[in-house]
Amino acid sequence: MQPQIERYRGREQSYIKHILLNKYLEAAAYKLLQPRRGAPVFNFVDAFAGPWRVSDRDDFSDASFSQALITLDTVRQQLIKMGRPGLRVRYRFCERNQESFVKLRQFAAERQEFDIQVFQGSFEDNIDEIAATCRDGFTFTFIDPTGWNIRSNRVFSFLRNLNGEFLFNFMAEDINRHSGWEGVSESVGRFLADPAWKHEFQNLPRDWPNERKILHLLKTKMKESGIATYLPEIAILRPRDERVKMRLLLGTHHVRGVHVFRTVQKVVEAEAVSVRQNIKVEQSGQPSLFPSSQIVEIEADRGGVSCPAHVERATEMLCCIVNQTPGIGYENLTGMVMELVPVRTPDLNKIAVTLRNAGRLKFDLPPRKRTPLPGTRIFPV
Ligand SMILES: C[S@@+](CC[C@H](N)C(=O)[O-])C[C@H]1O[C@@H](n2cnc3c(N)ncnc32)[C@H](O)[C@@H]1O
Q1: What is the pLDDT of residue 291?
Q2: pLDDT cut 70: percent of the chain above it
Q3: I want to staple 294 with a disulfide (CB 3.0 to 4.6 A). Which of 254, 282, 290, 374 is the partner?
Q4: Which CATH superfamily is domain 5-254 in?
């Protein structure tokens, strides 16, 4: 489901955020279709649901919970048409603000045909109740706070105990601006699930901006907590001044999740370029010299997923990892590279074969196979 851009005037970054959420959710729900016994269950948890700064006050069509509901229900109906056993979807929404909670409850009450439960209060205080309602199935959790004021140790304990993935909105701009200030030291400690974070922070390279340091500490903590093996991210810019507003992190234990994320990222990047382009044209009052599709292509080639620069970086990284861990399994290797560099599995397959032909890598291929299998062991030459 593609949200309507007109509803997002002045906060187009939320439009881009919602496209990523919807596209990833759609792919994740279809993924559950892989042959399995019984009807698959998909739990969608919108932990910081809103509604928040919406322009559609009737249907909340520009709110994450409403869009997720339409996206997942469309997948469910598609599956029925395809003759697959119906996907069961549970919607669990949590909101701390009283006024927003009332609206959320009303939204649910008007949609009795869906399995929606709404929780009032902070997500951190509701995790046991929410977890109890999604014990089985795959759980996708969307964590979209307004800043960094969250108790991550509670959030991590929720994510650790469920089978699933999460999308975490890291509010880069706010964190960059404020996290160096002594007055927020305690709240940043809660965000990083580490009251003694300052020590490590100070040891990170001095030329890193604050947000990069905090993101590094957060990702390290997330991995230590066992909530994710891979944490690929995409930066979302403020379309009017092109500064990074937020970073969306996917938390997953599966290489396939990273590949799907990078694939969705490509679509999102194209949409973001075209939104920025339209704003530029509108602001200047001059028509663009090039069609929007051409600008999207130029930008994609300059710095988008699978662009030449990223392929080159992925090649270097792949060689470096193989040199350090000779015999590493191919699936592991691709996960490690794709997490850090925006490329996709077919790019890595091409890179691996090229390096093998050039005599820089060794691996055995089964008869009639042209690219490594997930378990293929890769060695340096
Ligand atoms: C950025 S808004 C969410 C926007 C929504 N996810 C969307 O994309 O349409 C964050 C929301 O979380 C709520 N909130 C803040 N802290 C919370 C907490 N600890 N637990 C649950 N909700 C919280 C705020 O009241 C606000 O409505």
Answers
A1: 83
A2: 98
A3: 290
A4: Vaccinia Virus protein VP39 (3.40.50.150)
**CATH architecture of the region 255-381:** Orthogonal Bundle (1.10)
Q: Each residue of 185-216: pLDDT tens digit?
A: 999 999 999 999 999 999 999 999 999 999 99
DSSP 217-244: HHHHHHHHTTS-SB--EEEEE-TTT--E
Q: Is the CB of 146 under 6 A from ligand 1?
A: yes
CATH 1.10.10 spans which residues of the chain? 255-381
What pTM was computed for the model? 0.96
Rounded CA separation 140/265 (Å): 18
Confidence class for position 4, pLDDT limits 50, 70, 90: confident
* CATH 3.40.50.150 location in the chain: 5-254
CB of 288 closer than 8 Å to CB of 277:
yes
Q: CA–CA separation, 282 vs 7, rounded Å?
A: 16
Identity of residue 74? T
Token digits for 306? 């699978």
Task: From 20, 48, 143, give the residue whose CB has the most ligand 1 atoms within 8 Å, as the site to mutate.
Answer: 48
pLDDT of residue 1: 58
The interaxial angle of helices 292-303 and 308-324, nearest 10 deg, is 20
Which residue's CA lies nearest to atom 26 of ligand 1? 50
Residue 97 Cβ < 6 Å to ligand 1: yes
Across the chain, where does the E strand assignment appear?
A: 41-46, 88-95, 115-120, 138-143, 164-170, 233-237, 244-251, 328-329, 361-362, 377-380
Spatial neighbors of 81 by CB under 8 A, at least 6 apart, are none
For 42-57, the pLDDT digits (tens) are: 999 999 999 999 999 8
Residue 212: other Cβ atoms inside 10 A: 15
- CA 18 – CA 23 distance, rounded (Å): 8
